[in-house]
Each structure stands twice: as structure tokens, then as C-alpha cells.
């Protein structure tokens, strides 16, 4: 597994496929494989798929200190520069969307096309800040942490569809790890509104109409802040990459592979 030094971190990433670079950036607590592993093979026939784990996930290591969105963006920039030459397509989910937008704003030379999924621009929305604060407050009770995260990450319809056994499996996999708690702190602090006008890449913003983690109004606000972006809203809870995996892949491939 390749590793690149970026700031105070040694960032691990995986590479598969052939073609122009396509980087998938994961969200809070769950690493690249947990977020994107089930979808990545849909792109490897025409893209070199790059799956980095930033600080707090996978085998990426750092000093364990406070994280900022700029540090996480620097880690993704380091991976892009290390993995190949030329710009990449960049797809981010949740916190990964915030990080990807930051990368595109700070280094427009590295991003061809940009997909921002279930993202946001600011930490001062009352629902978002209370959600993250409540989630963090359950850190001393692993079951409560997992149940709260699961309850808000998926729509009611999806939880009913998958049934109790799979719901319990998701709860057990959603743990208050050190990485997850560090990412929640980033969510509570990060404001990228000043960066968004600097994005030059053609951008698709994907909203989730049943999102109970990041309200869909914040997805729409993100789209409005990125000049010339295209906005598409799917009938899904926050974790659209699982709830509507096939539909999401079709949407993203249509945007990235249209020429």
C-alpha cells in the first residue's frame, strides 16, 4: 500500500484500475474502504481509482493532535501528487465533501471535475451543530454512539428494508473511535464559505432529501455557493452511497464520463 508524507501525517492509500485518476474521499469515522469499497470497482475499468485514508482512519498515522480541514485537504493533495501526474476527478462524501471542496479551492490545478455529496459549508447551522455535539456527547457509551449515528445516517425506509440484523451490524460497526471523535471536532469548527468562490472545477453537488445528519437545505446551500455547479437531489438518507448505491454510481459516472 503506497504511503505519502503530508504535514504531520503518513497517509496510506490504495490504487486500482487504469485511466485518468479518480480520488474518493471518505467521511467522518469510516475510512475509504468502509465508505467506497463496495462502489469503487464500478469505476476501475476506465479510471485509476485512488482511495486515501486521512488522519484517524485505516493505517494513516499522525501525532494525534487537533485536526483542521486544511490539514485533511493537504493529505489529499499529497496523495494526488504522489499517485500520478496531472489533475484528477475528486469525489467526496460528507466530511469528505467539505475536504474535497477545500482541495479544489486551494489547488484548482489538481482537480478536473468535482463531486460533493451530502456536504455543507459552515458549522453554525443549529441542527448540524446540535447533531454533532450530541453525537460527540455519547462517546462514553459505544452502543449509544452507534445507535445515534445509525439512526441519523439512514432513512427510516432504508432501516426498515434491511431488517434488524443488519441494523445491529451497522450499530456495532459505528464506534466512538479516536478518529471519529477527531473528525466530529472538525465538523463542529469548519467554515469553508470563503473558499468556495475559488473553485474552478466543473462541479456536481449531490443532495439527500431524507438526510437527518446534514439537513438537505445545507446541501442546497453548498450548491448555490459553488458558481456554475449542477445540483441533483436523491431520495435518500445521509449515507446515499449505501442507500442508493446503484443510482449514485450511475449519476457520478454520467457526470465524470460524459466526454
TrEMBL record:
Q: What keywords does the record list, in alphabetical order?
A: Hydrolase
Q: Which GO terms describe its molecular function?
A: hydrolase activity
AB hydrolase-1 domain location: 22-250
Q: InterPro entries, alphabetically?
A: AB_hydrolase_1, AB_hydrolase_fold, AB_hydrolase_sf
PANTHER family per the record? Answer: MONOACYLGLYCEROL LIPASE (PTHR43798), MONOACYLGLYCEROL LIPASE ABHD6 (PTHR43798:SF5)
Record-given protein name: Alpha/beta fold hydrolase
Please tell me the species this chain comes from: Kitasatospora cinereorecta
Amino acid at each position: 500500500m503506497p504511503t505519502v508524507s503530508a504535514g504531520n501525517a503518513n497517509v496510506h492509500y490504495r490504487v486500482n484500475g487504469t485511466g485518468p485518476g479518480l480520488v474518493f474521499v471518505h467521511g467522518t469515522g469510516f475510512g475509504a474502504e468502509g465508505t467506497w469499497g463496495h462502489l469503487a470497482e464500478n469505476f476501475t475499468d476506465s479510471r485509476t481509482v485512488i482511495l486515501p485514508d486521512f488522519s484517524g482512519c485505516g493505517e494513516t498515522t499522525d501525532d494525534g493532535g487537533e485536526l483542521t480541514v486544511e490539514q485533511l485537504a493537504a493529505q489529499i493533495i499529497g496523495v494526488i501528487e504522489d499517485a500520478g501526474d496531472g489533475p484528477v476527478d475528486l469525489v467526496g462524501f460528507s466530511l469528505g465533501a467539505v475536504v474535497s471542496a477545500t482541495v479544489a479551492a486551494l489547488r484548482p490545478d489538481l482537480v478536473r471535475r468535482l463531486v460533493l455529496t451530502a456536504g455543507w459549508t459552515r458549522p453554525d447551522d443549529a441542527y448540524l451543530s446540535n447533531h454533532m455535539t450530541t453525537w460527540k456527547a455519547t462517546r462514553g457509551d459505544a452502543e449509544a454512539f452507534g445507535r445515534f449515528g445509525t439512526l441519523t445516517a439512514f432513512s427510516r425506509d432504508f432501516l426498515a428494508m434491511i431488517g434488524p440484523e443488519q441494523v445491529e451490524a451497522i450499530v456495532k460497526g459505528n464506534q466512538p473511535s479516536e478518529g471519529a471523535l477527531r473528525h466530529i471536532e472538525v465538523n463542529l469548527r469548519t467554515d469553508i464559505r470563503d473558499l468556495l468562490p475559488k473553485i474552478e472545477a466543473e462541479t456536481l453537488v449531490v443532495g439527500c432529501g431524507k438526510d437527518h445528519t446534514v439537513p438537505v437545505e445545507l446541501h442546497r446551500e453548498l450548491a448555490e455557493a459553488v458558481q456554475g455547479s449542477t445540483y441533483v437531489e436523491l431520495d435518500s438518507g445521509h449515507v446515499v452511497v449505501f442507500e442508493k448505491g446503484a443510482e449514485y454510481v450511475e449519476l457520478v459516472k454520467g457526470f465524470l464520463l460524459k466526454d
